[in-house]
Design a protein that fits this description.
By secondary structure, the protein is of the alpha+beta class. About 40% of the residues lie in helices and about 25% in strands. Helix 8 packs antiparallel against helix 9, helix 10 packs across helix 11 and helix 12 crosses helix 13. The longest helix has about 80 residues. Belongs to the NMI family. Keywords: Coiled coil, Cytoplasm, Immunity, Innate immunity, Nucleus, RNA-binding, Secreted. Its main location: cytoplasm.
Length: about 625
């Protein structure tokens, strides 16, 4: 009986032990789940903190830029205020010259006050500075200068010696042009050097009025008002009769009898001076009258013929055009031209037109043009090469490209090469839209091929085409299980992000980010390297990169500094100039190349940076 009880107790203990083991296993599983949840929360907190830090950094950068702009605006306001305080006077040393009297206008009803109205046209010569061993030549015909610039190098005979010279376009600085309107009052005169006497101001005012009322020298007459300032010893006499002040024009000194003593007052005409039609001339004014044209068909006609076609197009009233001063084509970018109008108002009119179609009998079809303002603070265009060979067994490539051209009117397409490659140029957002359209085409083909793959009669050529299509499009479409995401970026924006927002590409060990750069386009691959990383994390990283690139694409501007001599010494001087200015411009990215230097950053900082680099390098050239 005791053995049975012991056995029973033993069985109960075993059951309790098994139950306890099960509870222990459950507790361990719960603990593992809690640890995983805590780890996920920790990673989310880290990502959220990094995101907030990056946003805070960007806000601080924008705040710094705004403070700079505020300081600059304050300086501009102070300068404008000082100019206004000087009563619109412009002080400038002018060489003594003879003035030409053109004509006198008849009196009109607009001037019943008998005032004398004068208009002076003032134009300052545009200043320029030549360095040593340089000469400036101005031609009557612009085409002559253009041809010489195209030839670049020339040989000139100088006193039985030959000299090799290079011809380059010369950028003039800014000059000014305005009209100075001067009105000499026929009713008012200015009085100065009024004697200081120990009498009330009202008495002095009355004595001045009486003195000029009874005047017999130079006219005078009934006085309407006397404005007297004792501190400056000046007064303004206003007569009631128009023309009464004209008699004092040739009178510099005028007698004044007061308190039994004679004084001599200084008399001068009362004038009102103001500026009209103030205009900056030179490059600054030219940029405001210039528009950028993209989508110009490249390589179809001779450059001079295309220039004439563009000029005719933008002179037509149906295109909201007007008088064209200059058409610059070709430019450094294919399919891009610069059109400068004589009147800035034409620029606004041309930009208002919804669509510009370039049509001519020498062109096989019309070409849509995109017109934008000159010097927008964006990257104007990028170039990408598309490989269309993956579609050649499914479509007629020429028809497919025509479909692209209709859908993407803002892009310029080059000729289709025999290997299926085609060059595309345009704004980066427009190229991204074209890429999305291509991906849809590729996806539809891939799904269609998978259906046909299930059929037994599929031939080897068809299977080879499917393999090639799948291989090439897999580089652009994220995997079905969400283990890869792809972002296409402008290469300049990508470089800027890598330098100033590097934490965007540093997530954790479960995410691997790589890139492939092809000219103006950089493709960024975001892949899953760990076993527990969710597809949502890759998507969040992709969205963060895309959002940041969109912000930077709107804010950044690129300027290109070209080497002139391409010597090692010149490159060293430019490099020194850039490095010496870098501490003053911490958010400007400098990328040196063999033929030039790219400068990327905020519009105002890039402008100031390139200007200072030019000044530093010029001073170095002059000292050598």
């Amino acid at each position: 009986e005791r053995v049975e009880k012991a056995e029973k107790a033993k069985a109960d203990l075993l059951l309790c032990k098994l139950s306890a083991d099960e509870e222990c296993v459950k507790a361990e599983q719960e603990l593992i789940k809690l640890k995983d949840f805590q780890e996920k929360q920790r990673k989310d907190i880290i990502m959220s903190r990094d995101t907030h830090e990056r946003e805070l950094y960007l806000l601080n950068q924008e705040n710094t830029e705004l403070k700079r702009e505020i300081e600059k605006l304050k300086d501009d306001l102070a300068e404008c205020s000082s100019v206004l305080s000087r009563d619109g006077q412009i002080k400038k040393k002018v060489v003594e010259m003879k003035m030409k009297f053109t004509h006198m206008e008849d009196m009109k009803d607009d001037y019943p006050d008998m005032n004398t109205h004068c208009v002076f046209g003032v134009t300052t010569k545009i200043p320029f500075r030549l360095n040593q061993n340089q000469a400036l030549i101005t031609f009557e015909d612009e085409e002559v200068a253009r041809r010489l610039i195209k030839m670049d190098k020339h040989t000139v005979n100088l006193d039985n010696k030959t000299a090799d010279v290079r011809v380059k376009p010369f950028m003039l600085e800014m000059g000014i042009k305005f009209e100075l309107h001067v009105t000499i009052s026929g009713k008012k005169i200015n009085i100065s050097e009024v004697p200081e006497l120990s009498i009330p101001e009202d008495w002095m005012r009355d004595k001045l009025e009486l003195n000029f009322y009874k005047s017999e020298q130079g006219g005078g007459g009934e006085v309407e008002n006397v404005n007297y300032d004792k501190q400056s010893r000046t007064a303004v006499i206003t007569f009631l009769r128009p023309g009464a002040a004209n008699g004092f024009v040739r009178c510099n000194k005028y007698p004044f009898f007061v308190n039994g003593r004679w004084y001599r007052l200084s008399v001068s005409p009362n004038t009102d001076v103001h500026l009209e039609k103030f205009q900056a001339t030179g490059q600054a004014a030219k940029s405001a009258r210039t528009v950028v044209i993209t989508g110009v068909p490249d390589g179809l006609l001779h450059n001079d013929v295309m220039t004439d076609i563009l000029m005719i197009h933008f002179q037509m009233s149906k295109n909201n055009g007007g008088d064209v001063e200059e058409v610059k084509y070709p430019t450094m970018k294919k399919g891009v031209a610069y059109v400068t109008f004589e009147d800035q108002e034409v620029v606004e009119s041309v930009l208002k037109k919804d669509e510009h179609r370039l049509e001519d009998r020498r062109l096989s079809r019309y070409y849509p043009l995109k017109v934008t303002r000159y010097c927008e603070n964006v990257f104007s265009s990028v170039t990408s090469v598309l490989n269309m060979s993956v579609f050649k067994d499914q479509f007629v490539l020429e028809d497919l490209i025509e479909e692209f051209k209709k859908k993407s009117t803002a892009l310029s397409f080059g000729p289709l090469q025999s290997n299926g490659h085609i060059s595309v140029q345009g704004s980066f957002p427009a190229i991204k839209l074209l890429r999305d359209f291509l991906l849809l085409k590729a996806k539809s083909l891939s799904k269609k091929d998978k259906k046909e793959d299930s059929k037994s009669h599929q031939g080897p050529k068809r299977r080879l085409q499917q393999h090639r299509l799948t291989t090439e499009t897999s580089n652009f479409v994220h995997d079905a299980d969400g283990e890869k995401q792809v972002v296409v970026l402008d290469t300049d924006v990508y470089h800027y992000m890598k330098n100033f927002f590097s934490t965007t590409f540093l997530i954790n060990d479960d995410v691997v980010i790589s890139d492939i750069t092809d000219g103006d386009i950089t493709t960024v691959y975001i892949e899953n390297a760990g076993s527990r990383s969710a597809a949502g994390q890759l998507l969040r990283v992709k969205e963060e990169i895309e959002n940041r690139s969109v912000e930077l694409h709107k804010a950044l501007r690129k300027e290109r500094i070209y080497y002139k001599e391409h010597t090692r010494d010149e490159k060293r001087r430019y490099k020194w100039a850039c490095e010496s200015l870098k501490p003053d411009y911490p958010y400007v990215l400098i990328i040196p190349y063999d033929t030039h230097i790219d400068v990327i950053g905020n519009s105002s900082e890039v402008f100031e940076f390139t200007k200072e680099v030019s000044n530093k390098t010029q001073s170095l050239f002059q000292t050598r």
